[in-house]
Amino acid sequence: KMKVIFLLVLMAYFAAGEKELHPCPPEDLKVDPKKLQRVWIIKAITIPSQHNYGEFMQLVDKKNHYEGYAVRDGYVDDESYVSWIIEGTNLTRQFAYIYELDGVFEILLFEENYYVDQSYEHTDRIYFHIDQDLDVDGWEKYLKEAAKKLCLKYEDFIHTPPTSN
User: Fold this and answer.
1) DSSP state, residue 8
2) Which of 130, 109, 125 is nearest to 59 (CA)?
3) Cα–Cα distances in Å, from 20 out to 25, 49, 71, 90, 94?
4) Which of 20, 30, 33 shows the shortest CA–CA distance to 159?
5) What is the rounded distance in angstroms from the CA atom of residue 84 to the CA atom of residue 70?
6) What is the distance between the alpha carbons of residues 93 and 87, in angstroms, rounded to a whole number?
7) How far is CA 136 from the centre of its chain?
8) Could you state, in chain order, the average pLDDT of each consecutive group of 10 residues for the chain (165 residues)?
9) Is there a contact between 126 and 36 (Cβ–Cβ < 8 Å)?
10) What distance in Å separates the CA atoms of residue 54 and residue 149, rounded to the nearest whole number?
11) Which residues is 8 bridged to in the sheet?
């Protein structure tokens, strides 16, 4: 009997989740905009790889300095999220996974010993948006959309877009 109840609850949970396309983060995971670090993707290209890494991204920090790159690790959590692994210069001190939901990305940063103790405690969350050739008006539009999806005020989310090359 308990198994049946559990299955019904589980089914109801997934059914409810499907209806809400852009759920707000749970209260304990909400981002403090003052602590929000921002990393922007400035390039997204496809590269051949023996490890099935089909996507490659260049990352810049909030001062528009090149900070490294990310490659997709081929692991798909479900139909909405794609996991990425970050590599690079200043970012290699922490391991990170980047999750994508309808063009808005979230980076989960982990402590340096993540692969040793398999700790899933993240140290920060970074939200950013991907696009290749956006002018200033385009960035503003996408940032407003991203802020709305993340349940943040645009004023808290605003960021000077990286200069295009």
Assistant:
1) H
2) 130
3) 12, 35, 29, 36, 32
4) 33
5) 6
6) 9
7) 22
8) 59 46 42 42 37 41 42 37 37 38 43 32 35 48 58 50 38
9) yes
10) 27
11) none
What CA–CA distance (Å, rounded) separates 82 from 90?
23
Q: What pLDDT is recorded for position 5?
A: 62
Question: Tokens 């602590």 correspond to what residue?
Answer: 35
Q: Which of 51, 89, 53 is nearest to 69 (CA)?
A: 89
Q: From CA 115, how far away is CA 46, in angstroms rounded? A: 27
Task: Give the strand order in the sheet containing 55-60.
Answer: 40-46, 55-60, 66-76, 82-88, 95-101, 104-110, 122-129
CA distance 93 to 81: 24
Q: Which residue type sits at 106?
A: E
The CB density around residue 61, as the number of other CB atoms within 10 Å, is 17
| pTM for the full predicted model | 0.28
Structure tokens at 48: 């051949």
| DSSP E strand boundaries for 37-155 | 40-46, 55-60, 66-76, 82-88, 95-101, 104-110, 122-129
Q: Is the dihedral of CA 65, 68, 72, 78 positive or negative?
A: negative
